[in-house]
Backbone:
C-alpha cells in the first residue's frame, strides 16, 4: 500500500470494478434499498445534501422523501425513531454525520436498543453508521474512535472494516442482520483506498476476521486504517527477514477469537495495533483472551501500539505524534520478534 | 364535572371505563399485599389516584394502535388486553412472565399482538421510539396512532425535546400524554418546570395541546379520543397535559413526607374512582347491585390470576445466559405489514413528496396558527440588499426590531467603555 497520502488498492480481485471505500458504502446502501423496500436511511443532511461526505448522494432522488429522511440535529431522536421503525418491520440505517456524535445517543443505543432482545424479546434490526477516525486533522470532536464504548455493550454488533470489498459486503450483512449493528467507517480511507468489488450481490459475514498477510514470526492484529499501517510495517519487516502475519479483525463484537488464537498458536507472538486510545482499547481484551486461552503458546509479551491516552489533538504535529504509524509498528514488531 | 361527563358515550363505554379503573386499582392493591409478603422482588410503583389517565387515554385507542406505557400506566396495559397475571409475574420475577424474569415491573411489551413497547427506566426515551413507530407504520400505509406517557419530571429530559420536535417535523400520528402529578420523586413540579401549564411546551414544537382534569375519566377519554382522531387524520402530534396528583410516594419505600398535608387532602377528596361512581350513580348507570357484581368479578379474577402467578417458578439460573442476539429467522421473522402498494415507495415511483411536509422554505406555523414569515422582521428585502456604503441599509419599516435597538444600545455601551 502507498503511504498515507497516496491511493492504495486492495480487496478481493474478482474481476469487478475498482471503487473507493466511500463508493462501496454508497453502493451498499443503494443496492439494499433497491432490493428491500423496508430499508430506509435517516440522518442529518443525508437527503438533499447527500451526506456530509456524500455517502448518500443520489439516494433521495432515487428513493424519495419517505425513505431518505433528513432529520433535525437530534441523535437520540434518530436512534429512538429507528428503533420504533424496526418494531414495525422496517430496517432503518441511521447516519451519524460524524461518528463522534454517536455518544449523544448513548443512552438510546446502550439501554434501549441493545437490551431489547435479551429483556423483552424485541429485536431491533437497525444499522448505525458514520465516519470515524483521525489522521485528517478533524480535531478532538471529528476524529474519534468510540467503538469500545459499544463493544462493552452486550446486544450490539460492532463492525470496523478496512477495504471497499469488506465495507460493502459487511454493510449489506449489517442491513440484513436482525440485531442493532454499529458500522464504523474510517474517513481516512473514504477516498484514499480503492478496491475491487464484485458486480453481483454479495455479503461478508459479521464476526469473521481475515488474514491479510501470512507470516510465521509474529501476529499483528489490527482493523480499519491501522490495518493498512500494519501491512505497510509488515512489508518493511519482511525486508529484515521478519514475516508478520497480519489479521484484519473487521468485526470487534462479536470478536473472532478462533482466527486470533489459530494465528497466535502458530506465531507465538502477538502485537495489536489500533487507532483507539490505549486504556480500554480492544488490545487489552485480546490480551486477556490470549492469557486465558493461549498462555502456553506465548513466547513474548503482548505488545500494544495504539494512540495516546488523550483526546485527538488538532495540530498536525500533535496528531501525528498521537497516532500510531508504520514506523512505530515496525519498531515494536522488531522488538517483539527478538523474544 | 357532570357537564364534561355528559358527552354521549354508550352505556357499555361508561361501564368499561369504570371497570378498568377498578381493575387497575385492584391489581395494584393486590401487588401491595404481595409486596408486604415479600413476594415482589424489586420496587413497586403506584398509580393510585391516576387511574383515570391510564384508562381514559388508552381506551381512546383501537386495537391496532401502539402504546408504550410508563411505570404508572398499568391501567393502560390492562385496557390494551394484558392479563393481570403477567403484571403480577413481572413484579415477582417469574419464569412465566413476559420477560421470563429478565426484567421487572411494567418493563415488558408485545410487538406482535397487542402492539405494546416496553419502557426502560430512563425517562423520555419512549418519545422518539413511538415517533418512529408512528412514522414507520405510516410509511407502510397503516392507519395507526402511537401513544406514550411522560411525567412532569420526565418532561425535563433532553430526549423529550428531541423526540417531540422530530415528531412535529414529521407530523407523526403520535399522542403524548403528559401526566402532571406534581411530584418527580421528591421534587415538586415548580422546581422541574417554571410553567403554570406544561401543555405550553407544545407551542415550542408548533403542535397542538390540551389540558385536562386527570381525575375525570370521561374528560380524559373525550380529550384523548379527539387527539387520537386528529393525529390519525394527519394533523401531527398532540400533547395532552393531564393534571393530577401522585397519592403515594415515588415507590413503596418512600413515605412521601415532603408532600404538604393540605395538598394530599385536597386530592384525596378528588379520587377519580369515587368521583366517577358518583356520576354513574347519578346517571343511573350503576347501582349498588351492579357495583357488587363488579367487586365479585374482580375478586374472582384476581384471586385466580394471583394464584397462577404465585405458582410460577423463578427462572432457572442458567437462563441468565444467552438470548443477547436474535439468531435470525428461526428466532424472529422481521416482517412489515404493507397496507399500501409497495410500488409507491420503490423506484421509479418513490421520488414523490409526502403530504406531510411543511410547505414553503423555512416557514412553519406560529403559535397563533398563522404561517410564520420566511424572514424575521417586516422588511426582509432591506436586509438582503447591501447598501452603497457597505453598511446594512436602514429599515424604515415600523416594528423591526426592538431587539436590534437593544443590541445596538449595548454595543454603544461597550464602545463608550
Residues:
Amino acid at each position: 500500500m502507498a503511504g498515507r497520502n497516496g491511493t492504495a488498492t486492495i480487496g478481493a480481485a474478482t474481476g469487478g470494478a475498482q471503487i473507493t471505500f466511500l463508493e462501496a458504502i454508497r453502493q451498499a446502501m443503494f443496492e439494499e434499498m433497491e432490493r428491500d423496500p423496508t430499508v430506509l436511511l435517516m440522518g442529518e443532511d443525508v437527503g438533499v445534501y447527500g451526506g456530509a461526505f456524500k455517502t448518500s448522494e443520489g439516494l433521495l432522488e432515487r428513493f424519495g422523501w419517505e425513505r431518505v429522511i433528513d432529520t433535525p440535529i437530534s441523535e437520540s431522536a434518530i436512534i429512538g425513531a429507528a428503533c420504533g421503525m424496526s418494531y414495525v418491520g422496517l430496517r432503518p440505517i441511521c447516519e451519524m454525520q460524524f461518528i463522534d456524535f454517536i455518544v449523544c445517543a448513548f443512552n438510546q443505543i446502550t439501554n434501549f436498543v441493545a437490551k431489547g432482545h435479551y429483556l423483552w424479546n424485541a429485536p431491533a434490526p437497525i444499522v448505525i453508521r458514520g465516519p470515524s477516525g483521525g489522521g485528517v486533522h478533524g480535531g478532538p470532536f471529528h476524529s474519534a474512535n468510540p467503538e469500545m464504548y459499544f463493544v462493552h455493550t452486550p446486544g450490539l454488533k460492532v463492525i470496523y472494516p478496512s477495504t471497499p470489498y469488506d465495507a460493502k459486503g459487511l454493510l449489506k450483512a449489517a442491513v440484513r442482520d436482525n440485531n442493532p449493528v454499529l458500522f464504523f467507517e474510517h474517513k481516512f480511507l473514504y477516498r484514499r483506498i480503492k478496491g475491487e468489488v464484485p458486480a453481483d450481490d454479495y455479503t461478508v459475514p459479521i464476526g469473521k476476521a481475515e488474514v491479510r498477510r501470512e507470516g510465521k514470526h509474529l501476529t499483528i492484529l489490527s482493523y480499519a486504517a491501522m490495518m493498512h499501517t500494519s501491512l505497510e510495517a509488515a512489508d518493511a519487516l519482511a525486508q529484515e527477514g521478519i514475516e508478520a502475519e497480519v489479521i484484519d479483525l473487521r468485526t470487534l463484537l462479536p470478536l473472532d477469537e478462533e482466527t486470533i488464537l489459530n494465528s497466535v498458536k502458530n506465531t507465538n507472538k502477538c502485537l495489536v495495533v489500533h487507532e483507539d486510545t490505549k486504556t480500554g482499547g480492544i488490545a487489552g481484551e485480546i490480551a486477556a483472551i490470549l492469557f486465558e486461552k493461549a498462555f502456553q503458546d506465548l513466547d513474548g509479551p503482548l505488545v500494544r501500539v495504539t494512540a495516546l491516552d488523550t483526546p485527538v489533538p488538532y495540530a498536525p504535529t500533535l496528531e501525528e505524534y498521537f497516532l500510531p504509524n508504520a514506523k512505530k509498528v515496525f519498531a515494536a514488531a522488531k522488538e517483539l520478534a527478538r523474544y | 364535572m357532570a357537564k364534561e361527563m355528559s358527552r354521549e358515550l354508550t352505556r357499555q363505554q361508561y361501564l368499561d371505563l369504570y371497570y378498568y379503573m377498578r381493575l387497575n386499582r385492584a391489581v395494584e392493591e393486590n401487588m401491595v399485599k404481595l409486596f408486604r409478603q415479600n413476594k415482589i422482588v424489586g420496587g413497586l410503583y403506584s398509580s393510585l389516584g391516576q387511574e383515570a389517565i391510564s384508562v381514559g387515554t388508552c381506551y381512546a385507542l383501537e386495537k391496532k394502535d401502539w402504546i408504550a406505557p410508563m411505570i404508572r400506566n398499568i391501567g393502560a396495559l390492562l385496557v390494551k388486553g394484558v392479563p393481570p397475571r403477567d403484571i403480577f409475574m413481572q413484579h415477582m420475577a417469574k419464569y412465566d412472565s413476559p420477560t421470563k424474569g429478565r426484567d421487572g415491573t411494567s418493563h415488558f411489551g408485545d410487538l406482535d399482538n397487542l402492539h405494546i413497547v416496553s419502557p426502560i427506566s430512563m425517562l423520555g426515551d419512549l418519545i422518539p421510539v413511538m415517533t418512529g413507530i408512528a412514522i414507520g407504520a405510516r410509511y407502510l400505509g397503516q392507519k395507526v396512532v402511537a401513544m406514550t406517557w411522560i411525567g412532569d419530571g420526565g418532561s425535563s429530559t433532553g430526549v423529550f425535546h428531541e423526540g417531540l420536535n422530530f415528531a412535529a417535523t414529521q407530523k407523526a400520528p403520535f399522542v403524548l400524554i403528559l401526566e402532571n402529578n406534581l411530584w418527580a420523586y421528591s421534587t415538586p413540579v415548580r422546581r422541574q418546570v417554571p410553567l403554570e401549564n406544561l401543555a405550553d411546551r407544545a407551542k415550542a414544537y408548533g403542535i397542538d395541546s390540551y389540558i385536562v382534569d386527570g381525575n375525570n375519566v370521561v374528560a380524559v377519554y373525550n380529550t384523548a379520543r379527539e387527539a387520537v382522531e386528529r393525529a390519525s387524520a394527519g394533523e401531527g402530534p398532540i400533547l395532552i397535559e393531564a393534571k393530577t396528583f401522585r397519592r403515594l410516594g415515588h415507590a413503596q419505600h418512600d413515605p412521601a413526607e415532603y408532600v404538604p398535608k393540605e395538598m394530599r387532602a385536597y386530592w384525596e377528596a378528588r379520587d377519580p374512582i369515587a368521583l366517577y361512581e358518583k356520576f354513574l350513580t347519578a346517571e343511573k348507570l350503576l347501582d349498588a347491585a351492579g357495583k357488587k357484581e363488579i367487586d365479585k368479578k374482580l375478586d374472582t379474577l384476581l384471586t385466580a390470576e394471583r394464584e397462577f402467578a404465585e405458582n410460577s417458578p423463578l427462572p432457572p439460573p442458567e437462563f441468565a445466559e444467552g438470548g443477547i442476539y436474535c439468531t435470525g429467522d428461526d428466532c424472529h421473522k422481521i416482517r412489515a405489514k404493507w397496507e399500501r402498494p409497495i410500488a409507491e415507495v420503490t423506484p421509479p415511483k418513490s421520488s414523490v413528496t409526502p403530504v406531510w411536509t411543511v410547505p414553503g422554505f423555512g416557514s412553519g406555523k406560529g403559535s397563533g396558527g398563522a404561517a410564520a414569515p420566511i424572514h424575521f422582521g417586516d422588511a426582509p428585502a432591506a436586509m438582503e440588499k447591501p447598501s452603497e456604503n457597505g453598511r446594512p441599509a436602514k429599515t424604515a419599516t415600523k416594528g423591526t426590531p426592538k431587539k436590534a435597538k437593544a443590541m445596538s444600545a449595548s454595543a454603544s455601551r461597550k464602545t463608550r467603555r
